[in-house]
Specification:
heterodimer; A: alpha/beta; 6-stranded mixed β-sheet; 4-stranded antiparallel β-sheet; 12 strands; about 30% strand; B: mainly alpha
């Protein structure tokens, strides 16, 4: 893995639901260690774009490649070894411990007859520890608070140990301290383990703080580029349909409504 | 909560469940109009002297086949319920709720009405499979996301079968109604050859165990499972087919024995957790043991009068389930 191959590439990707197109020609390349943010208003197609990148739905046009191979030519198990997905929400019908929840992420790495071994358990415990929820390992996930459950879900994502992580609102349900802790842990993986992150984020200050690249999606089109220069007052005001004002304090920036 | 399941612990718990099943079968072999000691039963099974020929016949020709039938039926129903609950991600799913036994009952009752005793089993089987097919076609079950729709379709189709059953019962000559009621409530008194049901149980258990870890992943949602590399469409279809086959085999053998498919997996889930690699074999063994005990009570409690085994499974199952549910809350 020393030669840095492009983890995720799209070529003139068209994403939409039925006749409604969210973007029609999105081309991007995500390299190992990259951190990407997807921003846009409600209903702009952020989740749909993320799911298309994950291969959970078919693109309307163009294609998605993982590690240089077309996603459509891979089996579901091959995809699961190359990318992990954090859904917006998860509902559990049955009782399940947080540890079992995280260990499920080892499924794509195991043969059909195999059991999770000591190595898998270590990965799971490390992942829980990375998000500060190791003490909850044997708790039923249905008894956890929304924020605790979110951190268990993040631990599960990391335990899948794939080169690409696709996250739908990783900071939801988390208080401001936990948001920073969780994104610190995730971006540390990008730096040290060269994982690539693509995440839908609603908080523009988090995008500016953590992402080096961004995709702005809305009004039927998507633009991508360097996060710092893509997110401007003018572009974001048009995107969200509300005048925004930039606040600056040294290196940190954010936007507030005018 | 309990720690993550290891293969060693799974084997230990499964061995314990097997021991429970063996005790249940021993109880069935010893109990009846002629009470036999454990030693006599052992001599009869091993075809050794030490037991009268008549008593050896009672054990080998009457009680053993019936106990094995009961075991297979209970195991099949419990594993069918466990599979359906996971695939539909709904703890309320079982062969009854989904209309499988309703279809079987209509088939069997039509055969009884026509006076064709030999056709009861094949007609029940055909009814069970027809019902499964109807539910799947109407709900479009290949789309694994529509599990609520599948459950609702099953409930409505089951209600339709219920109406047909009521129609047949009201039109049937009164001499046939008691036989029909026994069939509807579950009855093992005609059980003579346990091997088809035992073979079906073995087949379903092997399929279920091969799918078990994927089913664990599916338990948390189909999109979650697809993201983890599980082919949900294929898995759900395979598990459903296995469950429908198991339910059809059980219902064909014993009529509608209720509650086993719902209560056994659910109760074991409370005690053992929801890892399918343990839950599926444990459900088969404990479900089998429950029906063996229930059937033994059904034929001995009011002897010589026999009562339908389904009445006993419900009378044992309902209070113990409610107690477990309260205790775990």
């Amino acid at each position: 893995m020393s030669t840095a191959a492009t983890v995720l590439a799209t070529d003139r990707l068209g994403v939409g639901i039925g006749p409604r197109m969210f973007c029609d020609a999105l081309s991007l390349r995500v390299e190992p260690g990259d951190v990407w943010g997807i921003v846009g208003p409600n209903g702009a197609g952020k989740t749909t774009l993320l799911r298309t990148l994950a291969g959970l739905r078919e693109p309307q046009a163009g294609n998605v490649k993982l590690d240089g191979r077309p996603l459509s030519s891979m089996t579901l198990a091959e995809r699961a070894r190359r990318r992990a997905v954090l859904p917006q929400d998860s509902i559990d019908a049955f009782s399940l411990s947080a540890l079992d929840c995280v260990l499920a992420a080892r499924h794509p790495h195991l043969a059909w007859y195999a059991w999770e071994g000591d190595g898998d358990r270590r990965i799971a415990h490390d992942a829980l520890a990375a998000f500060g929820v190791e003490a909850l390992a044997l708790r039923d996930v249905r008894t956890l608070s929304g924020g605790e459950r979110r951190r268990v879900a993040l631990a599960q994502l990391v335990a899948q140990d794939s080169p690409l992580m696709l996250l739908d609102e990783p900071s939801s349900h988390l208080d401001i301290g936990q948001q920073v802790a969780a994104l610190d842990a995730l971006t540390a993986l990008a730096r040290t383990a060269r994982k690539a992150l693509v995440m839908v984020l609603h908080d523009l200050h988090l995008v500016l703080r953590y992402c080096d690249h961004a995709i702005a999606i809305g009004n039927g089109r998507a633009e991508c580029g360097d996060a710092g220069s893509l997110l401007t007052e003018a572009r974001l005001s048009t995107l969200f349909g509300r005048p925004l004002k930039e606040l600056r304090d040294g290196a940190s920036r954010t936007f507030v409504p005018r | 909560m309990r720690d993550h399941l290891t293969p060693t612990r799974t084997l230990g718990v499964v061995a314990l469940c097997a021991a429970v099943a063996l005790v249940a079968v021993a109880f069935a072999l010893m109990t009846g109009s002629v009470r036999l000691g454990a030693g006599e039963v052992w001599h009869a099974l091993a075809r050794q002297p030490g037991v009268s020929d008549a008593n050896a016949d009672i054990v080998n020709a009457l009680r053993l086949p019936r106990a094995l039938c009961a075991f297979a039926v209970g195991g099949l129903l419990a594993i069918a319920g466990a599979l359906m609950q996971i695939v539909l991600r709904n703890p309320l799913a079982d062969p009854y709720v989904l209309g499988i036994s309703g279809g079987a009952a209509v088939g069997a009752l039509l055969a009884i009405l026509a006076g064709a005793a030999t056709l009861i089993a094949p007609a029940a089987y055909a009814g069970a499979l027809l019902s499964t097919l109807i539910v799947f076609t109407l709900a479009g079950a290949h789309e694994a996301r529509g599990s609520t729709r599948l459950l609702l379709t099953g409930v409505v189709v089951a209600a339709g079968w219920g109406a047909l059953i009521a129609l047949i019962l009201s039109l049937a000559p009164s001499a046939q109604v008691k036989g029909m009621l026994f069939w509807l409530l579950g009855d093992l008194s005609g059980a003579a050859n346990p091997w088809p049901a035992l073979l079906a149980l073995a087949i379903v258990l092997v399929i279920a165990l091969a799918l078990a870890r994927s089913l664990n992943v599916l338990a948390r949602g189909s999109e979650h499972a697809i993201a983890l590399g599980v082919n949900v469409g294929r898995l759900a279809m395979g598990a459903h087919a296995a469950a429908a086959f198991a339910a059809a085999a059980a219902v064909t053998q014993a009529g509608s024995v209720g509650f086993v498919g719902l209560i056994v997996p659910h109760a074991l889930r409370i005690v053992l957790g929801n890892d399918q690699r343990l839950l599926l074999p444990a459900s088969a063994l404990v479900g089998g043991a429950l029906v063996v005990v229930a059937d033994t009570l059904a034929r001995s409690l009011f002897a010589p009068q026999q009562i339908p085994v389904g009445v006993i499974t419900a009378l044992i199952g309902v209070p113990s389930f409610l107690w477990l549910q309260r205790r775990s809350a």
